[in-house]
Amino acid sequence: MNWAQDNPFASAPFRVLSDDQAQAIHETSLQVLQHTGYHTPVLEARQLLQDAGARLEGERAYIPPSLVEQALKTLRPVRLYDRLGQPTRLLEPGHVAFSTIADTFYVLDPYSRSVRPFLKADQGWLATVIDAMPGIEYVQCVGQTRDVPDNLQSQVAVAQTVRRTSKPILVYPYDRAGLLDILDMLTVIAGGEAAFRSKPFLMCAAVPAAPLFGTAYSLELLLTCAEHGVPVLSYACPAIGGNSPASITGTLVLTNADWLANLTIHQLKSPGAPFTTAGFTVQLMDMKSTLWSYCAPETLLAYSAVADLAHWYGMPAFGLEMTCDIPQINAQMGVEMMAQCQRAYLSQVEMVHNAGIIGAGKLCAAEAVILADEIIAYTRAATQAVSTSPEHLDESLRMIAEAGPMGEYVSHAHTLEHFRDFWYPRLFDRGRFDPVDEIQRPGLEDRLNARARQLIEQHKPIPLDEDLNAELDAIETGWHARSAT
């Protein structure tokens, strides 16, 4: 059955799976959970499953289909807000939204233009650049900074980011304690726990480490989010031929079972608690290098199938990334990011992540994020609907009659009124070109770098007020004092 009676997510322009195929994958995933089971190392999660009718053998839970079906019925739509309390379009059916990471292992320094380890100070200027990008609608805080203690990574990342952008944040806490620290901070910003619950501007990712294998880390985050009403995004990370079968079908079945298991545990803890999306990432294990390719053409096919499956459940889709495998800003990067951006719009992936993160997820570059924003704007303009309303057709008839045969429209009043409706590049170059007297122009990489430095130095995000900033300073000082003991 389709879990949404009036499903608003079922109208993507491009589909890989029919409803019957999505249902077949769902039913096969249920068999996996019932007969192969799910590793559940957290006692509370096992107890929830057992009390609801699952069979336990040690830490493995065999989950009957009825539990999963009941969990799916308790799902509710989730609305996300920005830091200012304004509703956003994130998670709306068919609205394709992009994010990028505010911290990675390495950064392309915009001034030295060399690669170096990512530092806490980089979070400030990178979040400032992200805030200036209209095509980037939410920000990821992972916590991968060289000069911050491991147990404070995600907390510091959020603290640095929330000061410099009002966009919603997706955080990847290192543990339950880190998530609780972050919630303390957000409660202060929101004006109380009830205020944050009513208008959440942060969601939490809980990512299991291996197929059919919940970890203490991921399950504790799931349970804590359910308890505190924090919107949660749960997904696994299969690599075709690596930790999942060497087929898209097998990968869909296996990883969808992961998603269903975590959804069931979350909803057993608190039915109706905010669970944001369906879906998961997909990479291809390159057997020549053993690296996980983010941008193999097969991953685009898989991501469309993931989106179709998510939409069949009546859920916003998550999984597709707008990244590249190569660690340089060059033609390959542009091709791979453009291909993924177009696939996002064709399959209507509501939450796309890692826009402009290069080198298979290891390297961030402000220049790449800015290019991603340009590609997003380009693609959005190329995939908009064309109107054939009676008003527009009648308007066309009048204009054509006025201009007549061999007519021109440059001087027509309609052109003056509407030429700004079209997309104009901010960074792509389509200026006049004289093949004889052409002067040397800055290349795209140089233009991207100049724009990055301009934004770092001139863009002014909406700030927190001084009292809130002081409270955040005190909270962060307390974290570091605790970490030092």
Supply database-style keywords.
485 residues; 12% strand; TIM Barrel; 45% helix; 2 domains; single chain; alpha/beta
Q: Roughly how many Å is the radius of gyration?
A: 24 Å
**What's the main sheet like?**
8 strands, parallel
Strand order of the largest sheet: 10-9-8-7-4-16-15-12
Structural class: alpha/beta
What is the name of the CATH class of the largest domain?
A: Alpha Beta
CATH superfamily of the largest domain: Trimethylamine methyltransferase-like
Compute the average pLDDT: 94
Question: Which runs of at least 5 residues are low in confidence (pLDDT < 50)?
Answer: none
Shape: globular
Fold-level CATH name of the largest domain: TIM Barrel
Count of DSSP helices?
16
Range of helix content: 40-55%
Span between N and C termini?
55 Å
Architecture (CATH level 2) name of the largest domain: Alpha-Beta Barrel
| Total E-strand runs | 18
Tally of separate domains: 2
What do you see in this structure?
The chain is α/β, with parallel strands linked by helices. It folds into two domains: 1-384 and 423-430 and 438-485, Trimethylamine methyltransferase-like (TIM Barrel); 390-421, no CATH class. Helix content is 45%, strand content 12%. The protein has an eight-stranded parallel β-sheet. A hairpin with a 6-residue loop joins strand 13 and strand 14. Helix 8 (216-228) packs across helix 9, helix 10 packs parallel to helix 11 and helix 12 (366-382) packs across helix 15. The chain is globular, with a radius of gyration of 24 Å.
